[in-house]
């Protein structure tokens, strides 16, 4: 697996690369190493790829050393994961055109990827919307909910800031590399997130600028990581509406926070509400739509005290990702028969449940 990392990383270093290109090359050659080292004659035969993309790849590849790529990322203590990495987010992996590689600062493993809420909205949000959003998200204080947003001005900033201030884990998906953070006014918030409050992630090489067309592309990651999407304020033509459309395409729960009808930034909101989006005016509305149970710190402590070490280990793994019985047995080094008994016990306790695909997840 590790020998693959450098080639996935090298593809991510291409300036003109895209997940669509890498996915097609990988599917065609069946090996990321073979895709990277493919002869020009073989590349021309790959269906569904424009000739200029092949030419660009061949030209850029000359100047990229896969070994040096992964060495550089490791030296900077940036975590890199790709589609074949065991800790690649399950929800994200199953969207259309998932990012083939992700650069991570902070610790995404402390985020419960089974209880993720994306929050999107206007960069020029009204004070009314900011205050209302802060109040709603603060209702998740000290829980295992994870807030996902884009670290942009306005609604995104409020979402991340509220999470940090209320001991809620958060993931920020940015539209450029870590060295080109936008907006620069959020550098303080960026540092707070990566220093114990969650993670900042990007599909772009560290020195790539945050170009305007990157943001609509990154929106698929914001919604793709999440169980549900809350639109806090949005004009009819906006990035938030793009994310809302992606949420519906990805079969996510779409919710909206109402605002003043005289505000142009609420036109998109009421359009979504008229077409079936859930109405959110309080924290409980979100938990009802997503069928989440909010566990108080006291209840969580009591639950943890009554669990065995093997049960805690299972829960710890399921908080990272949904897993099958075989996957759990491998990750926890458990006897399969004993594991089945433990899983049944945890299900009866209402701590875990079985989902489609025979995968278990924490409730």
Main CATH class of the largest domain? Alpha Beta
Number of discrete domains: 3
Helix percent reads 40-55%
Straight-line N-to-C gap: 31 Å
β-strand amount: 5-15%
Q: What series of H and E elements makes up the topology?
A: HHHHHHEHEEHEHEHEHEHEHEHHHEHHEE
Oligomeric assembly: single chain
Name the CATH architecture of the largest domain.
3-Layer(aba) Sandwich
Shape estimate:
globular
* CATH topology-level fold name of the largest domain: Rossmann fold
Largest sheet: 9 strands, mixed
User: What is the CA-based Rg, rounded?
Assistant: 21 Å
Strand order in the largest sheet: 1-2-6-5-4-3-7-8-9
Number of helices: 18
Number of strands: 12
| Poorly predicted runs | none
Q: What is the mean pLDDT?
A: 91
Class based on secondary structure composition and strand pairing: alpha/beta
Itemize the secondary structure elements and their pairings.
Layout (H helix, E strand, L loop, with lengths): L1 H11 L6 H11 L2 H6 L2 H4 L7 H11 L4 H10 L3 E4 L7 H4 L7 E6 L9 E6 L5 H12 L7 E4 L5 H11 L3 E5 L13 H11 E5 L11 H11 L3 E6 L5 H11 L3 E4 L10 H8 L3 E2 L3 H8 L6 H9 L3 H12 L2 E2 H8 L3 H13 L3 E4 L3 E4 L1
Structure commentary:
This protein has 363 residues and is of the alpha/beta class. It has three domains: 2-71, DNA polymerase, domain 1 (Orthogonal Bundle); 106-290, Rossmann fold, CATH 3.40.50; 297-362, Arc Repressor Mutant, subunit A (Orthogonal Bundle), CATH 1.10.10. It is 47% helix and 14% strand. It contains 18 helices and twelve strands. It has a nine-stranded mixed β-sheet, sandwiched between helices. The model has no long low-confidence stretch (mean pLDDT 91).
